[in-house]
Design a protein that fits this description.
By secondary structure, the protein is an alpha+beta fold. The protein has helices at 38-46, 68-88, and strands at residues 11-15, 18-24, 31-37. It starts with 10 loop residues before the first strand and ends in a 31-residue tail after the last helix.
Length: 119
């Protein structure tokens, strides 16, 4: 909302699969140059993109606490839309999983979450 990871004015050159940009050093506040492979530059840039469902700023716009009524109204509208969508697309009944050895119905115990890298 406030700033992106790197602004356009700090990207100085993109040529032959290399990206040259400037950044401010953390110790002496002087600008320094860095040249990276384009894929490494994109990898570093995408580390600043939040995963789906994460919100960086919650006090601007409808998520703000001052707009709680508007947020409740939006949630209500989304709920009605999801309910209408669910009625339009009825869920198919899945056949239960069977054990290949004994033929008994398998019971779901838990699900292992997928690995998510650092933000």
């Amino acid at each position: 909302m406030y700033r992106v990871a790197i602004s356009d004015r700090n990207i100085l050159k993109v040529k032959d699969g290399k990206v040259t940009f400037r950044y401010k050093g953390s110790t002496d506040d002087s600008y320094k140059l860095c040249t990276l492979d384009a894929f490494e530059f994109l990898r570093r840039f995408l580390q600043h993109v939040l995963p789906e469902g994460f919100v960086k700023i919650r006090y601007f716009g409808f998520p703000a606490t001052r707009k709680r009524k508007a947020l409740d109204h939006i949630k209500e509208l989304i709920g009605k839309r999801l309910a209408a969508k669910a009625a339009y697309y009825p869920k198919k009944q899945k056949e239960p999983l069977m054990c290949p050895n004994c033929g008994q119905v398998l019971v779901f115990v838990c699900e292992f979450p997928g690995y998510r890298g650092p933000p």
